[in-house]
Amino acid sequence: MKRGEEFLEFLDKLGNVNRRWVVKDPNETTSDKYGYVPWDRPIDLFIKKGMVVVDKPPGPTSHEVVAWIKRMFNVEKAGHGGTLEPSPR
Asked: What would the pLDDT profile of 33-70 be if each residue is shown by its tens digit?
C-alpha cells in the first residue's frame, strides 16, 4: 500500500467513515514535484506554506503577533486572516 492510500485510510478512520478507494494503477508513483503526502512533507514546506493557529491574549495587536510569527519562523511574508482579537467574555 502506498503512503497516499495509507493517509486516505487514516482520514477515513479519523472521521469514522467507511469508504472503498479505487486505485487506478497500484504500481504508479507520483513525483514529489506535484506535492507530498502530509506525513512525508519536508518541515521547510510546512513553515513556508503552512498556517499557525494563535490563541491571542488581550494586549498585543494583530500586527505585533504577525511580526512575532515572522521572527520565530524566519520568514519574510506572513499575515492573518480575520481578526485576532479575543471574543468578549
From this structure: 888 888 888 888 888 888 888 888 778 888 899 999 99
CA angle 52/53/56 to nearest 5° reads: 120
Whole-number Å distance between alpha carbons of 13 and 64:
39
**Lowest mean pLDDT: which of 12-16, 50-54, 85-89?**
85-89
Q: Mark whether 31 and 60 lie in a shared domain.
A: no
Q: Are residues 21 and 51 in the same domain?
A: no
What is the length of the chain?
89
- State how many domains the chain has: 2
C-beta separation of 35 from 49 below 8 A: no
Pull the grid cell for residue 70.
Answer: 515572522
Cell triple for residue 86? 479575543
Residues in Cβ contact with 78 at an 8 Å cutoff, skipping those fewer than 6 apart: 66, 69, 70
Supply the range of the domain harboring residue 11: 1-41
